[in-house]
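ARCHIVE CARD
SHELF: 3
SLOT: left
DATA:
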Amino acid sequence: MCLLLGAAGVGKTLLVKRLQNLCSRDGKGGLGEPPPTRPTVGTDLTDIMAPGNITIRELGGCMGPIWSSYYGNCHSLLFMVDASNPAQLSASCVQLLGVLSAEQLAEASVLILFNKIDLPCYMTLEEVKSLIRLSDIITCAKQNISTAEISARTGTGLGTVLHWLQDQHRTGS
């Protein structure tokens, strides 16, 4: 199982809907207009039908205090950050550090997604890496950590996310 975590409003639900659309079995695979979303209250399980079945458990951002209750079956983790919201960046960094320090997630592979790169006010990956000292976080973490810049709204970078998920599913990690 893959957990999808991040603060409220970072685009987790839209990401899942877009990945589902990208892998739809009808052969179209196009994204079209962004579907409407509502904040996730609680948890949502979604199956992504990429070669094989990948289950993503999205946990609402407001559930941060109890995220650890869901770490048990997690083999991979998507952690989403809003790259257009500098005010939220420090809180997201604190959440990320808490997640990475969880013993139950020591063996999980992690993909940190910097979302909303389509907005004019987004911070570049280099700016975000510098602000949260991402290189230090990666060095100290037990997990294998990757990063990607995406726009769940426009679809930029979703292929990278899907390939990462498929690789994790294939290796069983």
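SLOT: right
DATA:
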Amino acid sequence: MANRVAVFVHRLSVRGSRLTLQARQLHASSAGHSFLSTLLQTAKTKNPITAQWHGQPTHETHPELVAQGETTPGISQCEYDQRRRKIVDSLPDGGTAFLFSAPMHFVSPHVFHEFRQDSDFYYMTGWNEPESVAVLQKSATARRGYTLTMFVRAKEPEKELWEGPRSGLEAAVAVFGADEAWPVRDFAKRAAKLIGGAHPVFADLDGEHGLVRSEQCGELRQILQRSNAGARVRRLTPIVQRARLIKSTAELQLMREAGRVSGAAFAAAMRACGPGVS
């Protein structure tokens, strides 16, 4: 596991530097700008730099990190489905649960902090991008007993050249198990339909413990207020946290490996210390 992480960090650093240099060189010339404009006309791009990329490691792009059948390193697609089933089993018939990604935090208008995903959102989806929403709806007629609808950032190759790759709508379905995927800009328009009827809505809309919620969380709060559906809202976090109490075999293996690597790093740091060296 430690070798897989080291290989990933090195490859990402080298590849990112090359891509940034290539993009800047292209933009520096009029011919290059024309070339990029031709490549970047459609959302589903044929751009050789971004077309094959996802917003995070997958088996297709990083087989040394993510094994076949896994969504994220060490956790299979089947296990993510089991996690969602466990949550859905705790909902009443027809219940709908909204999970929101963490927002991006900026140092300045064009410089952002390293992104850290919301823990519950990542636990349920494995998706590691901001501006995203996952909607679980319990349904006796659905193949899995629930439907998963995801709202994510669509592929925009010109932005990806500077901000980093995105997985896009296609990967949300093909890799991360969504039944449907829509551009996140359509969330407010479609959310009203998703909360229709008299069924309970499960979501965390407050900023508990100083947590900053996403823009989409605020949009859902406004929709609920306009439709006088606030009384139907129940907190989702307690349900997810109860499910996370019992660790799976795969989770235990990852936790033990993380502990081993961390322990080795602390031991190496202590060996390097001495009188006058700290």
